[in-house]
Amino acid sequence: MSWKQSNLTLRLPQLSGWSFGDTLWIGTGNDAGYYLFQLNNKWIIADKLYPTLKTFSTTFYPLYQSINSVNYWEGGNYYLWYNGYWIISKTAGFGITEDWKWNNEDDHTEGGYYSGDEWYSSYSLPAVGESVVFYPRGSKRGTTQNAYESSNEIEVSASFDYWQYSERGDAPAGIYAPMSDQSGNKIVGIPQWTDQDDTEYTRSLEKDDNGHYTYGTISYDKDNEKWLIGTYESNSGWWEGEEPSISESVTFEFTINDDSNAEGDDIILEFDQYVIGDNTEDRYIGEAPIWL
User: Fold this and answer.
1) What's the confidence (pLDDT) of residue 292?
2) 0.85 exceeded by the pTM?
């Protein structure tokens, strides 16, 4: 997978129980649209930074903006936002009212009703995979004072599809396993092998002019159609093998010319882990006039 580390400190609106690390990696190429980041001290990959919230008819998506320093969501003609408790309304951050009115101010036995805007409230958001009830407010609250019309309640559920770091690397590099409905692992980083002497062989990020990756001192000799360590037909010997494999060990056999007395041991490569590459790129960020 290909990722670029953002050069900005990760600063996002707050959400209770949702603690971000300081660094955000952004997917490129085949990984475009995904983010790599720490959530509650665990490295994860996801296409959103907050959960998706749903009712029976509306899906709310995070906006990565804040009201009262807390992230809010938008879905259809509604917003879901925080003001000491969670609110679903047609306006965000303002414009919600609720009043009790008597049908007859002179005779309260005739009952009354709630009036105002159409909105809903809850003291908490659901945990991922769970749901909570949002109670009707304003004109939807009903005709019983200090109560809620149960038929107008709505249920809000939370979902968050992501992959979590599993193994084979110093996070964020490594294998990421699906933690929701997705299938298949995701990979972060460049594969690295070691031999019996703990020498490391890290695959290049890009292919060379021959159309092959290099692996430290291992490269493909196009003229002789061989994977080599060292120089082919060198008087001091060289090693011949196959392209390194993640699934199985690869042996590079020490080879000499017929008239050479050089000695050497075979080199056996085993896949070790994924590592973060050291590729960088220049970014143009602006210009300023100079006045003399």
Assistant:
1) 45
2) no
Instruction: Report long-range pairs for 259-268 (Cβ below 8 Å, ≥24 apart).
Output: 260/235, 260/236, 262/235, 262/236, 262/237, 263/237, 264/237, 264/239, 266/239, 267/195, 267/196, 267/229, 267/239, 267/241, 268/195, 268/196
Cα angle 269, 270, 272 (rounded to 5 degrees) comes to 130
Residue 283 DSSP class: -
Place of tokens 């005709």: 143
CA dist 45 and 164 (Å) reads 6
The mean pLDDT of 168-179, rounded to a whole number, is: 91
Q: Are strands 190-194 and 267-275 parallel, antiparallel or unpaired?
A: antiparallel
202, two tokens: 């890290």
Sign of CA dihedral 160, 75, 97, 134: negative
Q: pLDDT digits over 43-91, tens only?
A: 999 999 999 999 988 999 999 888 988 999 999 899 999 999 999 999 9
